[in-house]
Amino acid sequence: MDASADPYSPYDGGGDCIPLRELHKRGTHYTMTNGGNINSSTHLLDLLDEPIPGVGTYDDFHTIDWVREKCKDRERHRRINSKKKESAWEMTKSLYDAWSGWLVVTLTGLASGALAGLIDIAADWMTDLKEGICLSALWFNHEQCCWGSNETTFEERDKCPQWKTWAELIIGQAEGPGSYIMNYIMYIFWALSFAFLAVSLVKVFAPYACGSGIPEIKTILSGFIIRGYLGKWTLMIKTITLVLAVASGLSLGKEGPLVHVACCCGNIFSYLFPKYSTNEAKKREVLSAASAAGVSVAFGAPIGGVLFSLEEVSYYFPLKTLWRSFFAALVAAFVLRSINPFGNSRLVLFYVEYHTPWYLFELLPFILLGVFGGLWGAFFIRANIAWCRRRKSTKFGKYPVLEVIVVAAITAVIAFPNPYTRLNTSELIKELFTDCGPLESSSLCDYRNDMNASKIVDDIPDRPAGTGVYSAIWQLCLALIFKIIMTVFTFGIKVPSGLFIPSMAIGAIAGRIVGIAVEQLAYYHHDWFIFKEWCEVGADCITPGLYAMVGAAACLGGVTRMTVSLVVIVFELTGGLEYIVPLMAAVMTSKWVGDAFGREGIYEAHIRLNGYPFLDAKEEFTHTTLAADVMRPRRSDPPLAVLTQDNMTVEDIENLINETSYNGFPVIMSKESQRLVGFALRRDLTIAIESARKKQEGIVGSSRVCFAQHTPSLPAESPRPLKLRSILDMSPFTVTDHTPMEIVVDIFRKLGLRQCLVTHNGIVLGIITKKNILEHLEQLKQHVEPLAPPWHYNKKRYPPSYGPDGKPRPRLNNVQLKPIAEEREETEEEVHLLNSTTL
Questions:
Q1: Contact indicator for 788, 771 with CB cutoff of 8 Å
Q2: pTM across the whole model
Q3: d(CA 305, CA 428)
């Protein structure tokens, strides 16, 4: 985020705009002059010997200034390097500063791996608690309880005397209608109890612990401040309630929230190191590494986690952050592997390996699964956003506890009769991914065996489906419909809820059904030309589990619009290099189909729904508006005015601050010249004046405030002046009023600006904030109509081609803007120039 490295650096003394073709002649180290012809270096703050405490910090729900933060970090780095040769202590401090980045990501990886292991173990135990309990060891889940039993059989390996269902404990019956009803009631009871406890803890202790957390993390990484979202209370409550939410059986996963948990760890550990605790931009480098660690432990995919952080969540990702993200993901995966929460010496529950290669013909069903994934993603995004918007706009959203209880009750009542919906979603995906071998007892592997064929352990030939397979297909179809409906209503409720696992489950169900269909087609019609060349009688040609894996990747890609990171994650799940091509084909198809209905993924859609100030780098700006069309104030707003360099008193500035809610104010030389000097933030002005009143004698309301380098001569009886040059941004980014908005948007995206001043011949005209750009983009989407034919321009439904002043109306890429209603009053993110002088 080096300002000098960006191709757009529009301010060059007095507000003149540097032509882009001249930039390469300037070099990276040139001086910039303000409107008062006073030379200043490119660093933003002319620091005092004793910096004012609090200056340079940010309020809640504000955007950081990336350029200022990077300049602060460079200043700190220069100061440390200049002192490291003075003594051994300074050299030690320099080494500590250099290694603090690696230390903080190491601690983050250790904590993320440990918490992920704890969550996995606790969630498995509480999920099995809905069905029964282990009498020999209460802390064992169902599988662990029967590990040491000598009375289990191959056909009924999940039954042992040590494990008792609730029906056996309460009414003493293991079979029959009474046992089924009692287990049904206890399943619903535990599901409702877990859901109620989870939503209650979230509502009372940490409201930020709900949801996936990825939309907010993307917004935070883009520079937005949300105090408490990554705090210790959020971490504690999210860890506990995530276990409860998963155990309740709701159609959600723990993978997305694990990214939030890891980022909480990174945020907390960053406060141990001054390098990161005092610099918001540097802190976001740690959060990028933490998000990689979160995906690493969620899927057992360290490389996929790094790519996920790079592709999906990070806003600023320099090369050193890539290395540290990789190291954090490595440490987190190592810790999780050491804990071994699933007892299979793997990082994930549904790790599988296939032994049959794929064939060229199979690309067709793989692409069809990609089409299904794209359609599912488009449907889910629209349906879920519509439901969340309705939740926000109706009374139903005021009762989050009731909503969670209702959703949990409906889920439990419908899920119990179907064995595939009763299963934990991760267990379901594992069963759908697994290839049928001689040791599998699932109904999905109930094939009719050919008694004359020789059995091979790793390569069982395709066989005709038995009654169990057909029964399982019907149950899977019902489970697919159930998952699709319930996931729409579950994602967004006030409990921790991830979307990765439900989306993968939907795709895995669809893929397994398609895989079985293709397998049976190849068995009964092996003489068809599409099978004749490569699928012989008695050969193992089709692997239904592979179709489930491809379907899972396609559906997850359709919802999130991930590509590279998703393919790598699924590849790391399966450990098969030869299946990358089918995965790539399905994921790209799902993205293309989903983009045909809308380019937003589910996380971007929720960011827009919540109104977060996030400029998506993937969105293209294709219009031809100018900076003057977007800047504030508008023509209908009050006349322009600004802070002057040395003509205002403390009382004048305090009155201006009290009467407005704007985030900052430009400073000009005088009301006559109106040439730009710099930019002062509202928060810095408030803190500096309060600090001066406490620490400096003689500062009163009538004291003259001076932003210039030299204090002007004052009468002898005048009170002591207040110099505030140290808080002044001497080189604010400026553009001219004729700068295309395409360039302005690019500047905001690449440099992470909060605001940009608009000038004309060095005279300040207005300001553009990130919020103004977002509103402008939204208006372009909502208020644009196709141009009418020339002979229709005079019809009333179209505005005339010329305005009342006789000038042509603006046109945008062969479209004409509707007249936009009077805009509402600006909020704190916008800055107005308050002057009575009309330009």
A1: no
A2: 0.83
A3: 23
